[in-house]
Specification:
The protein is of the alpha+beta class. Helices cover 36% and strands 16% of the residues. Pfam families: Fer2 (PF00111), Fer2_2 (PF01799).
Length: 153
């Protein structure tokens, strides 16, 4: 058992974890970040995506202990005025919504790296995320709309 510090959405958490505890489970069970979801358990679907220092991490594969001291962002920490979140809502990019937190965080990572992505850039960056409802066109439209909103401010 180890005590680690996670800064999740700007809030510092001291948590006791087993050395083999997955970041996904610690975020959900000890921190209460329920937007982090297990879809496949093997890092192939993106539902468990979080940002660690602005970079995407598949939390279903990551050991929590390796993120001691990390600044993590989950979709729980974003509000409805966030450009990406509001664009997803405006474009109808969610059907069941299970995968959307991962898509939102991947989109935030993309726009931080590339503020004016092409449609091909958007598709390539999101290719590791799976939407079982098939709202890919709306998701791509939402990311482009968020980029446009950022460009006009």
């Amino acid at each position: 058992m180890s005590r680690i510090t996670l800064v999740v959405n700007g809030v510092r958490h001291l948590v006791d974890v087993e050395d083999d505890a997955l970041l996904l489970d610690v975020l959900r069970e000890k921190v209460g970040a329920t937007s982090v979801r297990e879809g496949c358990g093997v890092g192939a679907c993106g539902a468990c995506t979080v940002l660690s220092g602005g970079m995407s991490v598949s939390s279903c594969l990551a050991l929590a202990i390796r993120h001691d001291g990390a600044e993590l962002t989950t979709a729980d920490g974003l509000d409805e005025r966030d450009e990406v979140v509001s664009s997803f809502v405006a474009c109808g990019a969610a059907q069941c919504g299970y995968c959307i937190p991962g898509f939102v965080l991947m989109s935030k990572e993309l726009l931080a790296e590339n503020p004016a992505p092409s449609e091909q850039d958007i598709t390539a960056h999101l290719e590791g995320n799976i939407c079982r409802c098939g709202t890919y066109p709306e998701i791509r439209k939402a990311v482009a709309a968020a980029a446009g909103r950022r460009a006009t401010r």
